[in-house]
Amino acid sequence: MDKISFTIDGLKVTANAGDTILSVALEHRIYIPHLCYHPDLKPFGGCRLCMIEIEGRGLTISCKAPVEEGMVVITESPEINKMRRIAAELLIVNHYSECLQCAQNTNCKLQEIAAYIGIEEGRLQRLKRTARDLPLDHSNPFFIRDPNKCVLCGICVRTCDEINGVSAISFAFRGLDTRISTLMDKPIGESKCESCGECVVRCPVGALVPKNMRKPEREVKSICPYCGSGCGIYLGIRGDQIVSVRGDRDNAVNKGQLCVKGRFGYDFVNHPDRLTTPLIKRDGTFVEATWDEALDLVATKFKEAQDKYGPEALGGISSARVTNEEAYLFQKLLRSLGTNSIDHCARL
């Protein structure tokens, strides 16, 4: 791929042809405020916060401006800062202000932008605040939608369209009434949303947050246990419990994306009804047993069925939560008993 050299704030940088100024700047750890940009999505250019100046051309938004050989980019100037400040103030003055009560506190892009630009309370007081009291949407079993915190960046809409191809949500209404909505403005739980949570993990503010959200104290790299795809995940651990799951962006299989089961289906790990020891039935009641007792019982029942009805009376269903090696041993065991009646819940 062709390499292009240009200058950002006096620093000479190299990029690939077709890259945008914003993506290259962020890759070289040169911060340019942005809200509607996400590296997984096509540029949108809605927030106007990533304004920069190209020498000889004037102001433009960096998320849509491709790099060119020899170009000189300026990210800080009185005119640039003025435009960014106005755009940020108009967002903040109409935004939910109780940050300490927000699940995205300290992880909010709008907070990050406000801290960088330096928002002044006196300037905000001169602006007319629009009162928004839209109802929260709790209809989805895994996450909450709060339209009062939405900044209309469109990341959720583009994620649902570009990444998942579902298009369950879109922009609706006009002017000050514009908001993100489902078809016919129904609750998200009644839409064609697949609950994958991809929009939730990309939301830059607190408009989309998981239910019962708890920040982990550490993360453990693992593989999703639900099917044979082998998606990479990071389990968020707090104490002895799993409190969150996020996709591993470096994993070649899923590149950070997860389905609804992989992202939200981890409650079974700490569920009080989860079996932790084998159970066998004695006198009509299940009682705890050792693994040796349980395996001996299974072997005995297998032998009885085999002797009475023949080997094809036996069958087995394997689980996607076992490794490939364990699945291989399982089918080898069943075939050694003389049956080909074997299935796997993943079938991949």
Automatic annotation (TrEMBL):
The keyword DNA repair does not apply. GO terms for cellular component: membrane. Residues 79-118 form the 4Fe-4S His(Cys)3-ligated-type domain. One of its GO terms (molecular function) is 4 iron, 4 sulfur cluster binding. Residues 217-273 form the 4Fe-4S Mo/W bis-MGD-type domain. InterPro entries: 2Fe-2S_ferredoxin-like_sf (IPR036010), 2Fe-2S_ferredoxin-type (IPR001041), 4Fe4S_Fe-S-bd (IPR017896), 4Fe4S_Fe_S_CS (IPR017900), Mopterin_OxRdtase (IPR006656), Mopterin_OxRdtase_4Fe-4S_dom (IPR006963), MopterinOxRdtase_cofactor_BS (IPR027467), NADH_UbQ_OxRdtase_75kDa_su_CS (IPR000283). Its cofactor is [4Fe-4S] cluster; [2Fe-2S] cluster. One of its GO terms (biological process) is ATP synthesis coupled electron transport. Pfam families: Fer2_4 (PF13510), Fer4_7 (PF12838), Molybdop_Fe4S4 (PF04879), Molybdopterin (PF00384), NADH-G_4Fe-4S_3 (PF10588). This is Formate dehydrogenase (NADP+) alpha subunit. It comes from Candidatus Hakubella thermalkaliphila.
